[in-house]
Amino acid sequence: MRCKTRLASLPKVNSYSASNWPPYIADAFCVFKPPEKLTVSQWADKNRILDEKSSASPGAWKTERTPYLRKIMDVFCEDGIEEITFCAGSQLGKTEAEYNMLCYAVDQDPGPAVIVYPTDKLAEFASENRLIPMFELSPAVAEKFNRRASEKLELQFTNNYIALVGANSPSNLASRPVRYVFFDEIDKYPKWSGKEASPLALAEERMKTFYNRKIVKVSTPTTKHGNIWQAYLKSDLKLKYHVPCPHCGSRQQLDFKQVKWPQDMRDPQLVRYAAWYECVSCGQRIDDRHKMEMLRNGEWVPENTPIGRVRSVGFHLSSIYSPWLTFGDVAAKFLASKDTPEDLMNFVNSWLAEPWEEKAASLDSDLVMSRQTNIPAGVVPEYAQLLTAGVDVQVNRMYWTIRAWGARMTSQNIAHGEVEAWADLEKIMNRRWPDQNGELRWVVNLCAIDSGYDTETVYEFCLMNQDWAVPVKGSSNPMLQRYRKTSIDSPGSKFHGQTLYILDTDQYKNMIAARLNRDTGEGCFMVHADCDLDYATQLTSEHRVRERKGNKEVETWKQKTSATPNHYLDCEVYAALAADLLHVRYLEDLPAQEPAYSVREEQEWIKVKEDWLE
User: Fold this and answer.
1) pLDDT of 6 above 50
2) Is the pTM higher than 0.85?
3) What is d(CA 303, CA 86) in angstroms, rounded to the nearest whole number?
4) In this structure, which topology does domain 361-586 adopt according to CATH?
5) Where would I find the beta strands (DSSP E) of 40-80?
6) Superfamily assignment of 40-234 in CATH?
7) At 562, is the pLDDT very low, low, confident or very high (cuts 50, 70, 90)?
């Protein structure tokens, strides 16, 4: 394209004006003119157009809508900065900021680039639905984009190219030298790509020949060992965004503990319209109408004093800063998530941009003993609505536990022990347990029994007591759901067609560990006042470890030492499964005037047979 707009700036030669020059001479001079000196944010404000597919506000990009992104983008232009890490929550525009840097590089400082997505399929989707429309809508980039010569995963430009690869494809990661590498959602990457090094290491190896290389890492965090959190911690300079209070002017980082709502309000939908932010300095109420002005006057404040030359910069930002979310949205999301560890983990990761603290690895017997209530063994708490039991079958005995459950997954172990005879186990499960008033009205509603050992005896026992007992078996592979219902496949046997539940024990152990780490009270995994050390030690006998299975690295639960038994932990896993089968998650608070109830009532005709196996 001829640079006619720049002809007026060319000098006159031999009384001829630049407009009278032959086109080929004018074009030649335009080639020598350097590009306009802009920062990434200035370039985006001038050239970037958002499309309807990827933006809720299509049209011209305006950095003033997300002022916290300005410095993050502009650092890309600074000489000497090789790595930019942006650890952020959702609804903050982090991916768009990364794409602005990419477009700037194409137009202002071209060089071969690669964008690494978690998978090849995601790379293909991004190419068709995000990148190609973005390049075609921005005039400064569109004139350099060669759509005809491009492929789905390799986009060609006048003097550079952009490759799109999945972190699960090591050959693509290691096949070309590049100057720019953009990592998208790096906490979703596999640690190993086949038999080669990690995706991050493979991609960064391809940059060694470029002295002016740039690496951009963007993601929400997962755990403290995740890629993005580790990249942030290793940054030479770590920054957090501080905003001024509209009342006292005190600069502060927005913190979730300062999001307030009426104490007696629990409904997330009501809280959504009642929450506010409280200034940490003056205690004044800050409403959503103040947020945009606070964001515009905010600044990135260093969290550390760098030593030597700064080559890497890390930014951390939570979703509380998002101009598209209110303080009430954040509070409502917390209330909707707090009672389920998995949902709470998502809130901590995707909204607060904090790593999920893996406390399971440090669980010990002291933690269990600190979760004792003042209710003695064998007594059912007043909040209980059902009892479940779990049984771990061993060579010469059975370990058992009984747990009471209430609303919001609040639970307490009321009794545990071991027996040698099945008849003794049947007596315990049919026993009536007293409430806190001494009334004997509670029985176990459902008992889950491990069928991994002495399988046929377990099937027989459960068949004889199918009104309250079910056989279960741990899955040898990870499952998407916590459990699945199946049938015993044994043609010709009386057990054929009997219900069997397969469970993912790791998922239940995750739940137990998360709820043990809650404060004693609502939603906690508690124990009775007479809890013994042996039970506490067995409950914490395992920890989460990383191990490689095939081409993947997974986290699983393993015993800390072979000398420490884990029978009571297994029992609690089975009791938790039984609670799931009874839909414990849907329990609601009972009216104060109505007592809790027991689902299963013992009938007169049910008798315990001492010799039932005979």
Assistant:
1) no
2) no
3) 14
4) Nucleotidyltransferase; domain 5 (3.30.420)
5) 49-50, 59-60
6) P-loop containing nucleotide triphosphate hydrolases (3.40.50.300)
7) low
